[in-house]
Design a protein that fits this description.
The protein has 292 residues and is α/β, with parallel strands linked by helices. The protein contains eleven helices and 13 strands.
C-alpha cells in the first residue's frame, strides 16, 4: 500500500524536490533575538543575511516541534487513507523526535487500521536528507510503510556525517557537543573534526591546525569509508562558505568520484547551531561506519 513520506526542515533538501515528490515538511522554528521565524522555502531564503547577522553577534535560538504540530500534520493523511513514514532529525541532538513519538502513540488508537512509523535518522541536515531521499525510493519501489521504516533504520546506520566548524561556541551554547574536551582546540586556534556517532550525537574525534588541513582530513575519511561512491550521491552542506564547499567537492571528485554531489547551504535551524563557516560532508559507508 502506498504511503506518504513526511520530514522536517532539518532535512535541508531543496523545496522544489520535496514538492515534486509529495513530501510534507514540518517547520522547525528559529528565533532572531526572540522573534520566531521559519524557513519553508529554501529557494528564496536569504542565508547570507542570517549568517552575517550571526557574525555580528545577533543571537539565534531554536525551538522544537511540539506534539500537536505532528498530530495536525499526520491526522489528515491518515484520515485520507494514507500510511505515513516520518523521517526526522536525530534524537541525539533534539527532543523533537520524542514529540513525533507522542503524536504517533496518540493517533494509533484513533486509526487502528493505518500504519504510522517514526524513523530516527540519527542525523541532521543532509545526514537526514539522504534518508528522506531513500524513503522516497522505498515508497516509489512499492514497499509498505512498515517495510520502508525497517529498511531506513538500517540504512541510517550507514550515513556518515563528518564536519568542521569555525568556532565551537555555537555548539557549546546549544548543548550539542557531547564531548566538551574538544573546546580546548578552538581556544588554541585548532580546527575540530566532528562527526555524528552511532546514537546521533555530535562528537569531536580529531583536530587540525588549519582550515585546509581539516578539509583534507574530511576527504581522507571519505576516501577510506565511502561505499561504492560511483553509485551514490554525496552531499555537502555549508554555512556561508561556498568557496570552501566547492573546493571540498573538487577534492572529493579527485580521489573517488561519486555519481553526483548535492551541495547546499545549511538551513537556518541546524546552521545556527554550527555557526558561520561550518562545513559538512555526508556519504554512505558500511553498517559500522559511524564508529570509524
Amino acid at each position: 500500500m502506498p504511503f506518504t513520506v513526511v520530514t522536517d526542515t532539518s532535512a535541508n533538501l531543496p523545496t522544489p524536490l520535496l514538492k515534486q515528490n509529495g513530501v510534507p515538511v514540518l517547520p522547525f522554528t528559529y528565533l532572531v533575538e526572540g522573534e520566531p521565524k521559519v524557513c519553508l522555502d529554501t529557494e528564496t531564503f536569504d542565508y547570507g543575511a542570517l549568517y552575517e547577522a550571526m557574525d555580528r553577534g545577533v543571537k539565534i535560538t531554536t525551538a522544537q516541534i511540539n506534539p500537536q504540530t505532528y498530530v495536525d500534520c499526520f491526522r489528515p493523511l491518515l484520515t485520507a487513507g494514507q500510511d505515513v513514514v516520518f523521517v526526522g532529525m536525530s534524537s541525539g541532538i533534539s527532543g523533537s523526535l520524542a514529540s513525533a513519538e507522542i503524536a504517533r502513540a496518540e493517533l494509533a488508537g484513533e486509526f487502528p487500521g493505518r500504519t504510522l512509523c517514526v524513523v530516527d535518522t540519527k542525523g541532521a541536515s543532509l545526514g537526514e536528507g539522504i534518508a528522506v531521499l531513500e524513503a522516497i525510493r522505498c515508497r516509489d519501489g512499492g514497499m509498505s510503510a512498515a517495510e520502508a521504516a525497517e529498511h531506513l533504520r538500517a540504512y541510517c546506520k550507514r550515513i556518515y556525517q563528518v564536519f568542521t566548524v569555525d568556532d565551537l561556541m555555537y555548539l557549546r551554547r546549544g548543548g550539542r557537543l557531547s564531548n566538551a574536551a574538544a573546546v580546548v582546540g578552538t581556544l588554541l586556534g585548532i580546527k575540530p573534526l566532528l562527526k555524528g556517532d552511532p546514537e546521533g550525537r555530535i562528537v569531536s574525534f580529531g583536530k587540525a591546525r588549519s582550515r585546509k588541513a581539516v578539509m583534507e582530513a574530511m576527504v581522507k575519511k571519505y576516501a577510506a569509508l565511502a561505499a561504492e561512491p560511483e553509485d551514490q550521491q554525496v552531499c555537502i552542506a555549508h554555512v556561508n562558505c561556498l568557496a570552501d564547499a566547492e573546493r571540498l567537492a573538487e577534492a572529493i571528485r579527485a580521489v573517488r568520484p561519486p555519481k553526483d554531489i548535492l551541495l547546499l547551504e545549511y538551513e537556518p535551524v541546524t546552521g545556527s547551531h554550527l555557526g558561520p563557516r561550518a562545513l559538512a560532508l555526508f556519504f554512505l559507508g558500511d553498517e559500522n561506519v559511524r564508529t570509524k
